[in-house]
Structures are given as C-alpha cells and as structure tokens.
Amino acid sequence: MNINRDRLLARLDELGRVGTSHGPGRTRLALTEEDRVGRDLVATWMREAGAQVYIDSIGNIHGVLRGAEDGPPVMTGSHIDTVNRAGALDGCYGVVAGVEVIAAIHNAGVLPDKTMVVTAFTNEEGVRYAPDLLGSRVMTKDIGVAEALQLTSTDGEHCGEELRRIGYAGDYTPWDFLPGVFVELHIEQGPVLDTRHIPIGVVEGVQGYSWWKISVSGRANHAGTAPMSMRLDAGAAAMQLANRLTERSVVNQSPSVATVGTFSVEPGAINVVPGKATFTVDFRDPSDEGLEQAEVALRRSVDKLKDAGFTTTMECISRNSAVTFSDEICKEVAEVAAERSLPILRMVSGASHDAQMLARVCPTAMIFVPSRGGISHNPEEFTEPDDLVNGAEVLLGTISRLIMRRTSTQ
Ligand SMILES: [Zn+2]
Fold this sequence. Notes:
By secondary structure, the chain is of the alpha/beta class. It is built from 12 helices and 15 strands. Strands 1, 2, 3, 4, 5, 6, 13, 14 and 15 form a 9-stranded mixed sheet that branches. Strands 9-11-7-12 form a 4-stranded antiparallel sheet, covered by helices on one side. It has a two-stranded antiparallel sheet with strand order 8-10.
C-alpha cells in the first residue's frame, strides 16, 4: 500500500486555492462561504476514496471506512478552517493525507479489522468563533452541543444558523464517532525539524501555557525631589519582577519559557516616578509540573513586593494544561518511520491541535513534518513535497497497523 503522491500534492494545491480572492494567502474562516467550498471538496474526496460521509451536529465531517469488528474506530484527521491570510498546509495536510490513507486501504481491497475514520473538525483555529478546537471540544464533551451552537461569531453570526446556511448542520451525534485511537498528521509550524533536517517528528505531547496579568501599585512622585530611598517606584519594581521571571527560564535551562509581552506604567511621564505598572507574562512548559513551578515563582516574587509596601494584583487570563500523548502510539509511529528508514525526532508541540482534546478520551499521538523556516499562519508556509509524502506514508503505515489488529479472538 502506498500514498498516491501526485493526487495528495494536487489536492493540497486545489484546497489551497479556495479562499484566495481576499488578498495574499487564503482566508477560509470557519462556517463562511469559503469554508463551505472547501468542505464540499473534502466530502467529495472522501466519497471517491470509498468512505461513507457523515456530518455531525457541530459540522464535523467524518469519512468512515467500515471494518469487520464493531467497536470504536481508529481515527485520523485535522481541520480545514484557516486563520486570515493563511498558508495551504496547516490542518489541510492532515485531512487530505487522511483521505489518501483511506483511499490506499480501500484500493488494497482488504477488510480491516477495525473501522477507520478521517475527520475534518469544525473551527479549529478559533478565529471566527471562540473557543478554538470547537469541533473536537464538542466531540469530547468539553463543551455542550447546545452551548456551541449558540456561539456568536466575531462578525455577529450565530454558529447554528451558519452551519445550516452552509449545509453542514448534520444529524449525527458527535460523540458517536469517538475513536479508540487518534493520530493527527500536521506540519510542525516551528523551526526544529527543518533546522535539524529531520523528516518526521514523533509528537509526545502539547506544551501547556499559563497567561497572567500583574499590576504593581506604589506612589507616584516627583522625579527630582523624591530621594531614591524614599520612593515606592512601581515601574522599577515591576521591571525587576519581569526580569526575574524571564531570567529564571534562562538560568534553569529548562524547556520552560517565559515572555513579558506587554508592559505599561502610569501616569507615564518622563519626570514622574511611576505610581502603577501593569504587565503580562506568558509561561509555557511541556509538563504541568514545570508550569506550576513557574507560577509558584511568580507568586513568591509578587508576595515579596507586597512585603516591600506595594499593592499588587495577579489575574490568570488563560490557562491550558500540558498534554501527554500515548507512549504506545508514539512507539508505533517511530517503528513505522524506522521501517521506511526515516529519521525521527521525539518532540513536544508548541501549538494547540485537535489531538489534545482527543487525548482526553483515547490513546493519541501526532506526526509532524518540517515547516520551512518554521513559518506558519502565513502565506509563506511551505513543506517540501517529499516531506509531505513521507509524513503521509508514516500515517498510512501507523493507521494500517492499528486497524489490522483484532481486539478479540473468536
Ligand atoms: Zn492546525
């Protein structure tokens, strides 16, 4: 069994041309007319591959190839909605390659033990509807269907009505498709594989993040008359604190990263000691433990400022726990890559993916291929055709192993 190289590349190209009339790149936001055109293409390709197509009530498209056994399917998939002015590969690659995997298995004429599904999830990017990962969230019951259908888009349109308008308000219950195993193929969207010339990333998890807004209040005063020893300079105190947070990541040499992305002082004049300073910090770490340690360090530093007489506030703006994928499935992917003499790198994803929702309900892993220069969410997004084909072959090999495996002996 092999991936049809020419068709994979041609279809990525064809899907990439949908939504290109708005300027550079393509813009195919969830549940827009452009999304509908892309969905229609994908559903057609699924049927051509030999799959039966089902639309669930949040608009996820499932292409199903039945196996001999009942029971939860082996699923792959990703998304075809994009950010504004996107590249052609983010998400689309995983869906189009998944369709090619179904086609290869169907054409081989063998009846797999397990059912296989390729799914295009609704509104992964979260540009038009918040939260992101909407289709996979609903499927894994992180958010209710009714609640999801009530969401309003950034341009004021009701999610349920938009699904109906584009013809993708399905009747099927999303969690009826819940898989026994999930494998998502995706471009890396970062520079690691490209820089190190490694064709396959075996993704062991998704790093967690934690976003904070910190304010420090002291006493505004005259920059000329207030002696240094008598100041309560909120700006200087907040700068020291911000420095300590980023320094900590450098000193520890851990995979943990910290970013102070915004910083402002009030009243904000050249000759006034700042009375208040506000800044944000973004912590990321592949483990929850590392994330918690960063948060403890933050809290400790803020407490020290309180002891020094400042008034402080700490607000958690957003937090997502780190996700650990299945060791067993990662091993399968690594073995398949080894069979094809493709070097691998075990790595953690820096970006969010539908796979992190599925990881809550079943053994899950991801396969990454290199992104040239690490560029993504940009029309310049590019992966070498050979790398695209290699990734799809590894997906085919992995899925083939998983579906040809009886759960029970009769
Ligand atoms: Zn994506």
